[in-house]
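Milestone M4 deliverable, item 7.
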Amino acid sequence: MPNSTVPNGHDPAPGPDAIDRAARRAEVNKANAQKSTGPRTEAGKQRIKLNALRHGLTGQIIVLPSEDLSAYQRHSQAFLDEYQPKGPTETQLVQLLLDTFWQLNRAAAVQTNLLTLGITENEDRVRATHPDAETGLAMAIAYREHNRAFANIGIYRQRLAREFQRTLALLREIQAERRKNEERQLDNAAKLLKMHQHANIPYQPSDDGFVFSTAEIETHISREERWQQAVDHELYEHA
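Output delivered:
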C-alpha cells in the first residue's frame, strides 16, 4: 500500500482530479445558492414571520418589521416628555422604561391575536343555541389547545411588569436625589448672586462651580419670593 504522506510529514498536494472535483462542487454550490430565494409557500413565509415574532418577544429586537416605527418614536417621545431625564443614567433608565412598556404592549397584542386566531379556527367545531355561546366555547377550546403558549406569554408579561416597576422606582429615586441637590445648589447660588447684586458687582455662577445660568438663578429667586409671599398671605388670612 503506498504511503499517503510525503517524506517531510505533510499531506501531498492534491492532484488534478481532486482540484477538478472541488471546482465542480463549488460551481454547483454557487448555482444552488443563486436559486435559493427563501420560502416560497405561504406556510414557509408564515414560519419566517413567526420566528421573527418569537425573537421579538424574547430577544433584543425592539421594533419589528411589522410594527410602526413612527408609533414607536411617538411612544418614546411621550416617555421622554414625562420624565425629562438629565444625564446618561437617567436617559438610559427612561429608554429601558419605554422599551419595556413597548414590549408589554406587544405581548398583550400577541395574546389577543392568539386568542382571536383560536376562536376563528374553532368556531365551526362547536354548535350552540346562541352565537355568544359558540364564541365562548370556541374561546375555551383555544385556551385548552394553546394553554402553554398563553402561560408563557403570561409569565413573560409578569417579568416585564416587574422590570418596569424596578426601573421606575430606581429612576424616581435618582431623580429625587438629583433635584434635591439642584435645589440646594440653587439656594447657594441665589445667595451669592444677591450678595453680588447688592454690591453692584457682576457675578459669573461658573466661577463657583455652578452649572446654572444667571437667568436660571434669578428665576429660582423669583419663585422663592413668590412662594414666601403666598405663605405670608395665608398666615395673614388666618390671623
